[in-house]
């Protein structure tokens, strides 16, 4: 009975974490990974440690990519160093204004950074901001897919044992 309870809690954590990959008010992939850990160590100790290690690596990669991808796509869409710095600072400042402050902060930071670089070229500033937004969407998509993979692997393990 206790094992079933932990299994249910782990599934709830994974599902809420998947929702958090889209809704910034929730922790996201870290919560899903906590669900995988709970499943492994309290729900089903026979669950392969390989999956746990793989999801740990993917979770760490996603944490890094959440910051790197928007910077790279900002540059790809014509953003300057000022836009990248503005996006980084905007993200940090935006963290103090949940739930969507970090997104607005990042986009506003890129835009203002580009305007500081070249006040006359608002089109370039807009394009760089568009690049940052596209990068954010890529990162969110990656997080969602990793969370979904966690859910499916645990679900398959439950139904095949």
Question: Topology, pairings included?
Answer:
Elements: H1 2-22, H2 29-43, H3 49-76, H4 81-94, H5 101-117, H6 122-160
Helix pairs in contact: 1-2, 1-6, 2-3, 2-6, 3-4, 3-6, 4-5, 5-6
Organism: Cloacibacterium rupense
Protein name: Membrane protein
InterPro entries: DUF456
What would your notes on this structure say?
By secondary structure, this protein is mostly helical. The protein has one domain (2-160). The chain has 6 helices and no strands. α2 packs antiparallel against α3, α3 crosses α4 (81-94) and α4 (81-94) runs antiparallel to α5 (101-117). Keywords: Membrane, Transmembrane, Transmembrane helix. It holds the Pfam family DUF456. InterPro entries: DUF456.
Elements, N to C (H/E): HHHHHH
Q: What is Rg? A: 19 Å
Uncertain segments: none
Quote the beta fraction: under 5%
Summed over residues and divided by their number, the pLDDT gives a mean of: 92
Q: Give the N-terminus to C-terminus distance in angstroms.
A: 16 Å
Overall geometry? elongated
Total helical elements:
6
**Helicity, in percent?**
over 70%
**Which structural class matches the secondary elements?**
mainly alpha
Overall structural domain count: 1
Largest sheet: none
Transmembrane segments: 6-37, 49-69, 89-112, 133-156
Organism: Cloacibacterium rupense
InterPro entries: DUF456 (IPR007403)
Protein name: Membrane protein
Structure summary:
The protein has 161 residues and is mainly alpha-helical. It contains six helices and no strands.
